[in-house]
């Protein structure tokens, strides 16, 4: 029979059939079993769920919208300890949020070009989401009727912590997969996909970690004099956090450049707010990292804007912007002021600014301006985020370019924003708005 030579290997036949089904998109949504493997039109191999219809669960929960939490929502529990009945009600809400968020992310991945699903990193995230849906939906402790007592909530928290830990490295893995698949998707489509994905992740992880923290803070041995309500620091001083982040990044700069940049808080050192400290830490780390790196490289003559500063006699003299020694490079100025609805933090550097062409792309994902490392090194040091946020970190002052757009996602979650102005050859002024009193309703569709 013509063409029979392609099917002489019985072991290869299922793979070839599955590939034909995937490319033609003619298979039914429910995975098709072939021996001990499971195929569908979405990927070559999928997890097998013997005791549940995973497609029914995804279809059901993906239709639910998620209500974006406000600071008032997080603070409604009051100072710990929190009553068991309130924790139980919140646990039931968390389960629905997890299934809804995971289901929508699975569908978003399925809507990517099929060839991207063959990427091992994207495939890993896809399988992880499917497995997590099976874990949440099939685990007895996640069933609402089974969380009624303090001990059952403790078991729920243990399972929830496992979920949080399981997805800690999702950002760098997905980042690598999308970057490796750039030739199969437009930048507009890729940015829209990542923006929706990461913004949804912010809310899901916040809700889960807030419940975990509330439960820990309600234990008998917890020091109730502490200032936290779940994830919210009720007496957070931005100036102190700015200085703490600056000290860390100065150490990083010292390792990489042999120089320690510094900052000066010229106003607002006494301002306090109620805010999620992890979010603020991430944003300040990204903004200050950019300020420090630009300042050092500009005054070392290592940036494209250095021609505006260096004297015509010699670029190796390492003279500052006013002709002084390199040790006198200007500090990053930080100004913190109160507004009727919150605060604003302005960071000003003299790092030479950003070229107009690059300025148009800074809010896009994977638009890194760091040229010194290879791509593989960049993935290992993804924007130097605090481990408390993503579980990753590193010593590099550069990364994949996710810092600014992800920082804006964190700021936007509570109604804030980040604006940036640049004068090329001089420096950048970044304004970070924190909406502390906002109560607007949002949905993550």
From TrEMBL:
| Residue stretches making up the Histidine kinase/HSP90-like ATPase domain | 275-439
* Database matches in SMART domains: HATPase_c
* Keyword annotations from UniProtKB, A to Z: ATP-binding, Kinase, Mitochondrion, Nucleotide-binding, Phosphoprotein, Transferase
Q: Keyword Transferase, does the record have it?
A: yes
Question: GO MF annotations for this entry?
Answer: kinase activity
- Which residue intervals make up region (Disordered)? 374-394
| EC number(s) reported in the record | 2.7.11.-
Q: Where in the cell is it found?
A: Mitochondrion matrix
Q: Which SUPFAM superfamilies match?
A: alpha-ketoacid dehydrogenase kinase, N-terminal domain (SSF69012), ATPase domain of HSP90 chaperone/DNA topoisomerase II/histidine kinase (SSF55874)
- The EC class name is transferase
* Pfam families from the UniProt entry: BCDHK_Adom3 (PF10436), HATPase_c (PF02518)
Query: Which family does the UniProt entry place this protein in?
Result: Belongs to the PDK/BCKDK protein kinase family.
Q: What is this protein called?
A: Protein-serine/threonine kinase
């Amino acid at each position: 029979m013509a063409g029979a030579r392609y099917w002489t290997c019985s072991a290869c036949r299922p793979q070839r059939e599955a590939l034909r089904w995937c490319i033609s998109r003619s298979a039914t949504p429910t995975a098709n079993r072939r021996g001990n493997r499971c195929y569908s039109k979405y990927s070559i191999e999928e997890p097998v769920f013997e005791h549940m219809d995973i497609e029914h669960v995804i279809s059901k929960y993906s239709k639910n919208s998620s209500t974006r939490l406000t600071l008032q929502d997080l603070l409604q529990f009051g100072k710990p300890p929190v009553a068991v009945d309130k924790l139980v009600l919140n646990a039931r809400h968390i389960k629905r949020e997890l299934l809804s968020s995971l289901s929508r992310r699975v569908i978003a991945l399925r809507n990517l070009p099929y060839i991207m699903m063959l990427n091992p990193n994207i495939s890993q995230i896809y399988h992880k989401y499917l497995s997590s849906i099976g874990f949440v939906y099939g685990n007895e402790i996640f069933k609402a009727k089974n969380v009624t007592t303090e001990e059952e909530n403790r078991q729920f928290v243990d399972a929830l912590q496992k979920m949080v830990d399981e997805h800690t490295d999702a950002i760098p893995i997905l980042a690598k997969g999308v970057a490796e698949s750039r030739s199969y998707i437009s930048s507009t489509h890729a940015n829209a996909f990542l923006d929706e994905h990461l913004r949804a992740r912010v809310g899901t992880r916040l809700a889960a970690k807030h419940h975990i923290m509330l439960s820990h803070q309600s234990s008998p041995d917890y020091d109730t004099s502490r200032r936290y309500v779940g994830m919210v620091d009720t007496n957070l001083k931005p100036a102190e956090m700015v200085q703490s982040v600056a000290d860390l990044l100065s150490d990083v700069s010292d390792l990489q450049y042999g120089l320690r940049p510094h900052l000066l808080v010229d106003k607002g050192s006494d301002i306090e707010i109620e805010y999620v400290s992890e979010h603020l830490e991430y944003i300040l780390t990204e903004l200050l990292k950019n300020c420090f790196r630009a300042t050092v490289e500009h005054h070392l003559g290592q940036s494209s804007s250095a021609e505006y500063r260096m004297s015509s006699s010699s670029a190796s003299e390492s003279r500052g912007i006013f002709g002084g020694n390199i040790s006198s490079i200007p500090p990053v100025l930080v100004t913190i002021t109160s507004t009727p609805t919150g605060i604003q933090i302005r960071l000003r550097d003299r790092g030479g600014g950003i070229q107009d062409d690059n300025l148009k792309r800074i809010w896009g994902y994977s638009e890194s301006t760091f040229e010194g490392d290879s791509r593989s090194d960049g993935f290992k040091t993804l924007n130097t985020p605090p481990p408390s946020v993503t579980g990753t970190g590193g010593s590099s002052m550069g990364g994949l370019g996710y810092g600014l757009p992800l920082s804006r996602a964190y700021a936007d979650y509570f109604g804030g924003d980040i604006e940036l102005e640049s004068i090329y050859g001089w420096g950048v002024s970044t304004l970070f708005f924190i909406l502390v009193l906002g109560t607007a309703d949002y949905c993550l569709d």
